[in-house]
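ok so I'm stuck.
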Amino acid sequence: MHSTNSRDLNRNIKTISTLLFALKASGRTFLPFFIVFMVAAGSLYGCRSDKPASDVTIMPENAYEVDGRIYHRLDSAAGFCEQGVASWYGDPFHKKKTANGEVYDMHAMTAAHKTLPFGTMVKVTNVENNKSTIVRINDRGPFCRDRIIDLSFRAAKEIEMIQNGTAAIEIVALGTDDAYLATARDTASDAVYFTGDFTIQAGSFSRPENAENLKKSLEKIAQDVVVGEFEKNNQTFYRVRVGRFHSLLQARDTEQQLIENGFENIYIVAWDL
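replied:
not stuck anymore, here's the structure
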């Protein structure tokens, strides 16, 4: 790269010298002489590159940067296993948004990992006392070189690492949350893996009577059915929503119940949308 720039520089200098000699021999005035000189000088310095193009960093779609370090998210957690140090996080982050948009609950069974896909169910074993727990990845971190996972307060308490703050652990990925919870619903019923604020939207209408009719139909099989107004493009709409859930798993159960009863055009949304 540098030898090529030197050859280009020498070639441009010769070009400028030739132009200046020709102008002097022709006896022309100073103004054209100055104009030609400036154009030639611009070609000499304007094409110069101080930084080789190979030094430009293009961020891949599956990557993100924190404190100058680039992390590459995994497309799949299949067969994932890792050993290292775990830490935990609590009060300062409680009820704040996690990296996947949920709400951090220090009393739920969740964790932060730098690269595992969101929704991965992970078995974490404290190798110092052989106690283990299962968590769901919904956040990013910890961004310390010597730590590989940040557990919620409850998860850290289950493997008895609260007092020390850290522990030597092993991580084994169990699969996605949908697949895992479908087969372990009975054993996982008392654990909160999903954290957030959800509701089910059943319809949106420009006429309030249509919203009220849907509300009456839904109330035959569901509780907490409400009609709310919202403005869009200077027009008032009336949307019908069912329930408020802090667990996505609970919202999915109610959603499935409604679908089985003929309400197919429904979907789960964040409460504040």
